Amino acid sequence: MYYTRFDTRLCEMILVGDEQGLSHLHLNTGEGKRFFEISDKWTRNDEYFSYTRIQIEEYLSGIRKRFDIKLNPKGTDFQKKVWYQLCNIPYGMVRTYKDIAIATGNSKASRAVGLANSKNPIPLIIPCHRVIGTNGKLTGFAHGLAIKEKIINYEKIMTLFNLLLSYYGKQDWWPAETHYEMMVGAVLTQNTTWKNVVKALNNFKGSLNPSMIKWISTADLAEIIRPSGYFNQKAIKLKALNDWYERYDFSIDRVRSIDGEKLREELLTIHGVGRETADSILTYAVGKPYFVVDTYTRRLFHRLGFDVPAQYDEFRKIIEEAIPKDLYIYNELHALIVRHATEYCLKSPKCKGCPLAIQDDMQEEDPENPSVMFCAKRL
Known about the structure:
Helix content: 40-55%
Order of helices and strands: EEEEHHEHHEHHHHHHHHHHHH
Number of strands: 6
Structural class: alpha/beta
Shape: elongated
Largest sheet: 4 strands, mixed
């Protein structure tokens, strides 16, 4: 019997198997009830599991949804029947224990399904994390509820990303000709629509640059950006942001050379720069991956069934911990959310024709079952 162990962005993973196939995958979280010990009789062989490790890394980077690995889990016939049904749960979706019981042919076997689920020796690949309680709660997970929630969130967010990207295509955000124009736009967009921001930016008539903002009077600047609303306040904010940028000699390259957390702390001390504005500047202008949480994100994620925290940074970290720390994904996902929230997921949603109104391939459409539709709002 061979084994290997390696770190991932979720936790350390331990693989065990032989020529018959993979027999164990342990998520070494240090939490939960699953105790795992490497036997002295096993031989470490990292190369033997290289193909499996590649597939796991592809899964965690968002480019793989299903695994193609020879499995050899040890269990009873009923446990194997349950594990087989777990593999039929689509990526990004969840099922209840009762759903799986029905799929095995015994609607009253929910408790037995739960026990079989807890004995699954190859989590992630046999996706026992996709099973939740009838009340929508996560319930138990042998490796701890924290990682179960993170994996479910990851799959659901990546499903959201892929659905929106397939429907709308790449958005190439932020819509600005220069990095400085993007920073100015991040301030101007506060409490207004992008249409009004465009009007304000057009008023600069191509003369927008740090030197111009430095020497123009606050009153004249306010008049230029009048279409964006709150123009007197925003003129003061732009002056303050410009003063910060001057500390770096108006050089975006110098800004980019600084650690992201340090930059974020600096930005948040600037008058009129809040968390959303700071993260927009860091992500779109500076190229530091911070997920931007706005009203559209809150609305959409709430309708998708996420427990959305009131605190900005708490919500941001939930998303950032779930998905790969990839600047492209951060940029594109936020842009796609904005696009979707202004076309379908409005305050009064237009659900007809919504690209998130998908029907999964495991069950017939059932309006009484919230696990069927990807977007819970359609219920």
